[in-house]
Amino acid sequence: MKELIPEDVVEKKIYLIRGQKIILSIHLAELYGVETRALNQAVKRNIDRFPEDFMFQLKDSEAEWLVSQNVIPHKKYFGGSFPYAFTEQGVAMLSSVLNSERAVQVNIAIMRAFVKLREMIAANKDLARRLDDIEKKYDTQFKVVFDAIRQLMTPPEPKKRKIGFEVRESTARYGASGRKRAR
């Protein structure tokens, strides 16, 4: 079966806000093929299914951050009010609110994207832990190497330049060497 929405398209719409991975309601509406207004109305009719850890409305500072990260062109993009941010559980709950075949397929694609992101984060944490373990284990054996590398990494001290100027001319000859002495 052909994918309805490629995973990379969904992954690009997942952001980290308030320490949670979220998708904005405007992007969800785009993925589901409905108007944002219609999605928001469906959510409001079933608001008891969306507690704070499933969905929250963005604050002004969060909208400013989205603008600064080029996620959206301007805060006016949201219209009159800030969008809702749906966590993974909130997106799963949307499938019970939006009962279309497209909604089911889109939810599957979104869930797969969230799982893939979670796996990537876990893999990076495991790699960092292994690197720390290796460094601790071999730190004493390779102390000389680490010290040499650190020494190579430090920039040499710049040569001190003299302040002022120096006159470079031939010296005048004073004394008896150039003239005959009078006796």
Explain what this protein looks like in three dimensions.
The structure is a single chain. With 183 residues, this protein is of the alpha+beta class. The chain has helices at 7-11, 25-32, 36-45, 60-68, 88-97, 101-138, 143-153; strands spanning 14-17, 20-24, 55-57, 84-86. The radius of gyration is 34 Å and the shape is elongated. The model has no long low-confidence stretch (mean pLDDT 76).
Looking at this protein, list some descriptive labels.
single chain; 183 residues; alpha+beta; Mlu1-box Binding Protein, DNA-binding Domain; 4-stranded antiparallel beta sheet; 7 helices; 4 strands; 50% helix; elongated
Biggest sheet features:
4 strands, antiparallel
User: Which topology of the domain at 7-123 does CATH recognise?
Assistant: Mlu1-box Binding Protein, DNA-binding Domain
Number of strands: 4
Specify the structural class: alpha+beta
Question: What CATH architecture label of the domain at 7-123 applies?
Answer: Roll
> Approximately what portion of the residues adopt beta-strand conformation?
5-15%
CATH classification, class level of the domain at 7-123: Alpha Beta
| Order of H and E elements | HEEHHEHEHHH
Number of helices: 7
Average pLDDT confidence is: 76
- Distance between the ends: 122 Å
Uncertain ranges: none
Helix-strand layout with pairing:
Layout: H1 7-11, E1 14-17, E2 20-24, H2 25-32, H3 36-45, E3 55-57, H4 60-68, E4 84-86, H5 88-97, H6 101-138, H7 143-153
Antiparallel strand pairs: 1-2, 2-4, 3-4
Helix pairs in contact: 2-3, 5-6
Can you give me a brief rundown of this structure?
This protein is α+β, with helices and mostly antiparallel strands and 183 residues long.
